Amino acid sequence: MRSTRFLEGRLAIAAAAALLMLSAGCVSAFAAGAAEYGFQNPAPSITATYNPNQEQDVVGTARFYHFGLLGSSTSYFLTFSTGQSGTFATRWAQSAAGGRVNYQFFDDTTSRNVLKDLSANPSASEVLSGTNSASGFVTMTAGFAAAIAGGQLPVAGTYTDSVTMTIYAGTLGGTQTSNATQAVSVSITVPALIDLSLVPTGGSFNPSATSAIMDFGMLSMGELRSTDLLVRSNASYTVSLQSQNGGVMTNSIAGDTSTVPYTLSFASTPVALPAGTPTTVVATAPPTSAGGTRYPIQVTIGDFGMATAGTYQDNITITVTAN
Question: What confidence tens digit (pLDDT) does each residue in 157-175 have?
Answer without folding.
Answer: 999 999 999 999 999 999 9
